[in-house]
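Open question from group meeting: does this chain pack into something compact, or does most of it stay loose? Before anyone orders reagents, we agreed to write out a predicted structure and look at it together. Recording both the input and the output here so the notebook holds the full record.
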Amino acid sequence: MSDTRQTFAGLAHWEIVFWYALIVVSTAIFFWGVARLVLRYSRGGSNVAFRGLPGRIARAAGIVLTHKWIKRRDPLAGLGHALIFYGFLVLFAGTAILAFQEDFAKPLFGFDFWHDGFYLGYSLVLDVFGIALAIGLGIMAVNRALHPPRYDYRAADRRIYVAGDWVFLASLFFLAFSGFLLESFRITQTNPSFETWSPVGWAVGRGFRSLGMTAQQASSAHFATWWTHGVVALAFVASIPFTKAVHMLAGPANVAVRDDRAGKRLPLLPATATPEQVGYGVVGDLTWEHLVSLDACTKCGKCHVACPATASGYPLSPRDVILDLRELAAHEGLQAKIGERIRPETIWSCTQCMACVEICPVGIEHVPIINQLRRRLVEVGELDPMLQSTLESVYETGNSFGEPKRKRPRWTRELGFDVKDIRKEPAELLWFVGDYASFDARNQRATQALARILHAAAADFGILFDAEKTAGCDVRRAGEEGLWAALAEENVATISGCDFVRIFSSDPHTFHTLRNEYPQHGGEWTVLHHSQLLLELLEAGVIVPRRRLGYRVTYHDPCTLGRYNGVYDAPRRVLAAIGCELVEMPRNRDNSFCCGAGGGRIWMQEQPGIKRPSEQRIDEAAELGSLDYFVVCCPKDVTMYEDAIKTSGHQGELELRELSELVLESLDLPVDKPVAAAAAGEEQQ
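Structure tokens returned:
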């Protein structure tokens, strides 16, 4: 006799027919729910559509199977989800294999493989992965209980989310638990020796027999458990498109269709767009990819915790924006007006720092969605008065300070040497200086330090003088797409008329825009951030530090330099080259905490009683103990943190330095004496 088991043991013929009828009903409900979702998605606009879909699917498979995004900064959640994922997947595959054997291979072709060695191995594998599923569910339950801030559903009508999350976990746990019970009752009833290959069921069955359970009692318990387990399993399958479980479908789909450059290169506004087509005003304005992402959200709360606006008490949670849009789409339809649910002050709280996008385990594009909501608010005139005034200044003067363009190059007057006008003579390097580096008095010191370093290095560089206009990064992220396009076209035309090899900027916002967004308007150049240029000069020996500074410093990663462009090492290597001891803040590199300036927030009125992101960041640095300097390499960081040091009560305890200022100090040379020449002279002596 073969080692196997009977599939429908103890069931009458009509019960088996009824079971298959339930399967048909469950499957029909599942596919009806999926069809409703697909129909909703198809009514959205299109962005990336199906371009490069095979490659996208392959990439998504790698991300999903390795849990690469889920385990970021939360290995416990990654482990728990992996155990659930693979446990569920293998158990589902086991059920599918059994169905294939009983409903196709055996009745149609007489092919019976579910016995002996295959059956025993099958039993062992399913027991092992059933245990993995149960352990994973336990880990996720504990993780959820220990991290309540992530699941802070403030709106009263969202209390159902907490219950829904626990019901989801409980449903899976019940299926795993009842599956083992079912197995143990069967083994207790039949007591075959080969069922030691089902270690959990065999062990529990032995326990039942030791307690005196008879074969008849086990048969009755098996019958009741079989139907309970089966009905719950079919109900779970039917519920997938309508509950939290929908992320099992929408999550991988969203990973496949998401834009790899989401938020880093925003979509252009069609030239033929009417005012009603600018941005997102109703749910139906969302692209179908963004509609998919609404259902992909697992409500894990990672974006909620990472968001600097949320941490500061602003009325924004990236998670809640996604959930608001999901609820509008599901309950009010695609014509639902977004502004009736999501208030303007919520949308204007965003710094566009990309922390939410970077940490999302299913690749939701919060920042591009919020940017589209801003475009509509700008179009209808619902924006902060200070922001509106700044945008008007940019339109009228080409800079966010509202200064006459003739004042832009005035910072060069104190240098003691001439800077090339690159419009009139060629240079190897075009320096696009930026607004804050040009007009702000504190930032001018850092700008002049960089100019003196380049002069000392005999670098061939020039600037645009009064022909430069703001690059427009924050103009665009504030939702004023039309003004940004005009700035981009004018700057591209100006730059294209110059003779140079590479372009650089000390402003990460400008660096990002030149590098990633001006190509949308024909501006294709090799673009560097000044930290990369400084590192290049140091490593090539063009500039040689005369003394190791020996300062104990911490360094803040700017969002647009780090998360947007992946530049993390260059500033750190520069600090190491000039002899600084770097002490990292807990949140560093891709987990850096935003200063609060981005997305136009630097141009908006602050709310009273708010603990600003910049102040929280300075507090974080102060907790490191004695530091000589808080180092930045972004003009907006200079502005934000100089103020935050004062307002957070750390003045006299912490001092800010821009990277260029430290490099210049390490050179310890007269500013009119090129370092390369001086070094050569020393070698000859």
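Observations to bring back to the group:
Strands lie at 420-421, 429-431, 461-463, 502-505, 527-529, 552-555, 581-582, 629-632, 656-658.
Confidence is low (pLDDT under 50) at residues 671-685.
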